[in-house]
Amino acid sequence: MAMTDYTDYVLGVYGLTILVLGGMAWLWWRRLRRLQERLRAEGREVS
Amino acid sequence: MKWLARIQFPLGVLTALTLGVGLWLVMTAPADYQQGDAVRILYVHVPAAKLSLLSYLFLTVVSVLFLWKRTETLDILAEASVVVGAGFTFVTLASGSIWGKPMWGAWWAWDARLTSMLVLLILFMGLMALRNALDDPRKAARATAVLAIVGVVDLPIIHFSVVWWRTLHQPPSFAGPAKQAITGELLPPLLVMSVAFVLLGAWLLVLKSREVAARRQWEALETERLEHGHD
Q1: What is the pTM of this model?
Q2: SS3 readout for chain B
Q3: What are the pLDDT digits (tens) for A4-47?
Q4: ipTM entry
Q5: Looking at beta carbons, which residues of chain B come within 8 Å of A21?
């Protein structure tokens, strides 16, 4: 008996995980870079 | 917080390497004789679930330490771990739901494991909302630390839900009854992906903590400016 193809479900899970966790990392990285630039522009040492 | 900046790059490299090895093992692992390729969802779902619980456990520890020591670094780590934990909990629930559809025939069931996991996500969101709702940062830090400590009661409920109640969900993957625990060829990719997720969680925590610290530094600068502006 042929086994059901579950590729769409597997790809859906891996895609969603990359989107959520990767998206969070990208967003935080972008915010951090912006804040560091602003703080440096004010002559503050970035912690 | 300079130590966070120092460890971020090596931690990122280690995370990427471990994730690479883990994904290679996932792709080369055999399909399950009953579930077919759908079993590959396990390698994301179980590590994400472990990280959800680990994030909350970490949050509880830093919250207790914060109430005792009152240092800002601990509060920054607490704020960051809530968001990281919420992300992993969302991935756990979403991957479980997508896995549930072909295996159980339903996207969702009000099952003990699923419901207690949903409570964890609501707890994380409640902690974020509580912190944002209070204007005084010190009061917000104290209130969220207390709520986080109270909420830890959900962790044993999640862990033992599949033992205490009759549920649709399978028993624990690592420490369940011998017949149902994961063994054989399915175990190496699961172990490597679990290590990779721990490293990824640590890297995300470092990144978020640095962002929170920089945001607080900027807010302090703006407050300082406003105060001088009024003088």
Answers
A1: 0.93
A2: CHHHHHHHHHHHHHHHHHHHHHHHHHHHCCCECCCEHHHHHHHHHHHHHHHHHHHHHHHHHHHHHHHHHCCHHHHHHHHHHHHHHHHHHHHHHHHHHHHHHHHHCCCCCCCHHHHHHHHHHHHHHHHHHHHHHCCCHHHHHHHHHHHHHHHCCHHHHHHHHHHHCCCCCCCCCCCCCCCCCCCHHHHHHHHHHHHHHHHHHHHHHHHHHHHHHHHHHHHHHHHHHHHHHHC
A3: 889 999 999 999 999 999 999 999 999 999 999 999 998 887 76
A4: 0.93
A5: 87-88, 91, 200, 204
